[in-house]
């Protein structure tokens, strides 16, 4: 089995964590996870501790990659609006490719046992929503300035707790 990123180097047996085997490329440090290995680990590890730390930079692969198992083109998935990388998964055998540090980051963020959900429509919809919410926040921050944005956010959450919010808003609109 060849590394889908480096193409030439052979992947060697390794472990993502205790009890979860994977194949690792000794050159780019990317890791290939068979979906069946993941599932059997996931089923018996409801109480996994995510203690590993993130060790450095991410090296996302923008090139199209071929599945090392079944040679199908891998699809790209964003995992979370807050994680700065994209995972590659095979739509046929469901194997997953982690570029260097991606598994560690997923694990540290408590998402290791949720891998199978990342590729569902529901999960992807939520990620898109998170991303668009973040973009909206950025637009307003730019418009009002960071400090004013913070102040407005405070006022907004305070207003949301008031029972006569509508009247208060009407009052604010009258201010001149
Ligand atoms: Zn490699
Ligand atoms: Zn495959």
Explained architecture:
- The structure is a single chain.
- This protein is α+β, with helices and mostly antiparallel strands and 176 residues long.
- The chain has two domains: 105 residues, no CATH class; 49 residues, no CATH class.
- Helices cover 39% and strands 15% of the residues.
- It has six helices and six strands; from the N terminus they run E-E-E-H-E-E-E-H-H-H-H-H.
- A six-stranded antiparallel beta sheet has the order 1-2-3-6-5-4.
- It is elongated.
- The chain starts with 11 loop residues before the first strand and ends with a helix.
- The structure holds zinc ion (2 copies).
Strand content: 15-25%
Secondary structure class reads: alpha+beta
User: Which strand order do you get reading across the main beta sheet?
Assistant: 1-2-3-6-5-4
Instruction: List segments where confidence is low: pLDDT < 50 over at least 5 consecutive residues.
Output: 48-55
Mean pLDDT: 90
Number of helices: 6
> What is the general shape?
elongated
**Hetero groups:** zinc ion
Secondary-structure element order, N to C: EEEHEEEHHHHH
Helix share, percent: 25-40%
N-to-C span? 71 Å
Number of strands: 6
SSE order and pairing:
Layout: E1 12-17, E2 20-24, E3 31-33, H1 35-43, E4 74-78, E5 86-90, E6 96-98, H2 102-108, H3 115-118, H4 121-144, H5 146-160, H6 165-174
The structure holds zinc ion (2 copies).
């Amino acid at each position: 089995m060849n590394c889908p990123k480096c193409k030439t180097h052979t992947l060697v047996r390794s472990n993502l964590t205790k009890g979860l085997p994977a194949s690792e490329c000794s050159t780019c440090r990317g890791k290939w996870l068979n979906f069946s290995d993941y599932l059997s680990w996931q089923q018996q590890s409801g109480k996994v501790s995510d203690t590993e730390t993130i060790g450095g930079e991410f090296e996302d692969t923008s090139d199209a990659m071929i599945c090392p198992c079944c040679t199908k083109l891998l699809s790209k998935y964003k995992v979370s609006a807050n994680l700065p990388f994209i995972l590659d998964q095979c739509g046929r055998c469901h194997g997953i490719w982690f570029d260097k540090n991606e598994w560690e980051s997923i694990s540290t963020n408590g998402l290791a046992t949720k891998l199978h959900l990342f590729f569902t429509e529901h999960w992807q919809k939520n990620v898109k929503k998170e991303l668009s919410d973040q973009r909206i926040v950025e637009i307003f921050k730019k418009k009002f300035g960071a400090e004013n944005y913070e102040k407005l956010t405070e006022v907004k959450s305070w207003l949301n707790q008031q029972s006569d919010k509508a009247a208060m808003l009407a009052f604010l609109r009258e201010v001149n």
